[in-house]
């Protein structure tokens, strides 16, 4: 992994196509030790690292998903838990990481792949399918973070310098079609890239693609029920992630690259982040055994910080345990537990999901417990004590998924926005009129692509964090 990513770091200038890199690229042409055209595998490695690291990053300078779901609180600098998204330019930073450092490298990899020597065309086809699935994964993050975004006209600098913003649902529909096309391309008997997640196992890439499709389908449930059902049932029938071994987990070696939570809690020596009072109260009420794994105690009890407040000293509260502080912990960005909760929700909505809502709910909770080191007998006892309430399944599934997705901020945010549980209360000192439902657009877009971003803002009802996405109907 180290060698692949070390080489792939050279992809930055090539992948970005930035004017500031031109002198460096010219010198590369004269240096036989540095290629002027990087292999598509290295560009893919860069894109996977950048997207995984920054989707999972808890830094106050980036996505802030863990604060949007009110699972983490702060003790010293509460701006982020008061939903100040201006001072640190989080919208710009996440936008650039996904577009410039991630998708752009995938686009360049696709172009380079066409000219690479490959003796087995089935392998080339699988490589193209891998690039396509990875790109779709990043697009889904962008759409579910911002809403309408530049899509159909993006990455065409020779033709269009100011791309229009496409309708988010239209992008969803296209992503679903692209997933179907990509999975149909896959040649299971052949390998793909020696990639950093699935090592070229195309059966796993196919299950990952269908799991993205499942997530897209579930998000459509309240805005287009018929399409949601057909999409979800098609994804499940095609095969989704069904074990931890199939989860999309980007692994870190702890040397060249480390887990982003480690980087922010340990390497940066940031003694500020603590579990929120809502997290502690919710889990305590349910007698959740994961607390013993996740948090420390203060004077023999768990104590969470008040969200959005300037809390007492860090040492007065429960802290994130050593479980979250390993440099080598993988970023688990689409987990088996998440897929099981999505299937449970699908069954509760009346879709054909491969089991009853109660059974799939149990599977999801037990898997989350297993993932966090809790014995099966304890997990099953927990489900008996906290069964699915089928008459209020949104509360049961929403609350349990929110707990299970602790430290998986983006996945958790999708559940809380779609199911509205647990109920998130806007903090008294909030900079917003409600909790965030989306990330505002990058401020740089107003400088570089002003007309189009203004048109997009007007279309969605205002470029505000409180403007709901098209699928967030309730």
Automatic annotation (TrEMBL):
Q: Which residues cross the membrane?
A: none
Which Pfam families does the protein's record reference? SusD-like_2
Which UniProt keywords are listed?
Lipoprotein
What PROSITE patterns does UniProt report for this protein, alphabetically? PROKAR_LIPOPROTEIN (PS51257)
* InterPro entries (alphabetical): SusD-like_2, TPR-like_helical_dom_sf
Lineage, top-rank taxon, reads: Bacteria
Protein name, entry field = SusD/RagB family nutrient-binding outer membrane lipoprotein
Species classification: Bacteria, Pseudomonadati, Bacteroidota, Flavobacteriia, Flavobacteriales
């Amino acid at each position: 992994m180290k060698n692949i990513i070390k080489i792939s770091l050279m992809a930055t200038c090539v992948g970005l196509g930035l004017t500031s890199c031109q002198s460096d690229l010219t010198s590369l042409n004269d240096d036989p030790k540095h290629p002027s055209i990087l292999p598509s595998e290295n560009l893919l490695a860069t894109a996977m690292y950048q997207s995984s690291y920054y989707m999972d990053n808890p830094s106050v300078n980036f996505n802030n998903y863990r604060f949007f779901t009110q699972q983490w609180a702060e003790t010293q600098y509460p701006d982020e838990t008061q939903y100040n998204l201006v001072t640190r330019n989080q919208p710009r930073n996440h936008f650039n990481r996904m577009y410039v450092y991630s998708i752009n490298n995938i686009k360049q990899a696709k172009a380079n792949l066409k000219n690479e020597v490959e003796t087995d065309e089935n392998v080339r086809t699988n490589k193209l399918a891998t690039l396509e699935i990875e790109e779709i994964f990043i697009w889904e993050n962008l759409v579910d973070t911002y809403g309408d975004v530049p899509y159909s006209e993006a990455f065409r600098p020779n033709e269009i310098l100011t791309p229009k913003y496409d309708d988010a649902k239209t992008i969803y529909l296209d992503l679903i079609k692209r997933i179907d096309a990509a999975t149909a391309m896959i040649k299971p008997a052949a390998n793909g890239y020696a990639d950093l997640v699935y090592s070229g196992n195309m059966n796993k890439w196919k299950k990952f693609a269908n799991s993205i499709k499942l997530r897209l389908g579930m998000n459509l449930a309240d805005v287009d029920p018929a399409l949601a059902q057909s999409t979800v049932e098609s994804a499940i029938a095609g095969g989704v992630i069904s074990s931890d071994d199939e989860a999309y987990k980007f692994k870190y070696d702890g040397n060249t690259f480390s887990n982003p939570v480690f980087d922010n809690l340990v390497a940066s020596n940031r003694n500020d982040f603590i579990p929120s009072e809502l997290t502690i109260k919710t889990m305590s009420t349910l007698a959740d055994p994961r607390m013993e794994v996740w948090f420390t105690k203060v004077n023999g009890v768990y104590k969470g910080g008040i969200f959005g407040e300037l809390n007492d000293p860090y040492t007065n509260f429960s802290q994130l345990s050593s479980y979250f502080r390993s440099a080598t912990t993988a970023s688990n960005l689409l987990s088996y537990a998440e897929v099981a909760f999505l299937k449970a929700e699908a069954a509760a909505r009346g879709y054909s999901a491969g089991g009853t809502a109660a059974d799939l709910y149990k599977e999801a909770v037990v898997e989350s417990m297993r993932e966090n080191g809790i014995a099966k007998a304890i997990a099953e006892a927990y489900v008996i004590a906290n069964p699915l309430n089928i008459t209020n399944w949104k509360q049961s599934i929403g609350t349990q998924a929110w707990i299970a997705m602790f430290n998986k901020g983006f996945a958790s945010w999708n559940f809380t926005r779609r199911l509205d549980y647990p109920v998130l209360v806007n903090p008294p000192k909030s900079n917003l009129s409600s909790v965030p439902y989306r990330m505002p657009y990058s401020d740089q877009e107003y400088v570089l692509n002003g007309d189009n971003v203004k048109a997009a803002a007007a279309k969605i009802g205002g470029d505000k964090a409180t403007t709901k996405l098209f699928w967030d109907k309730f």
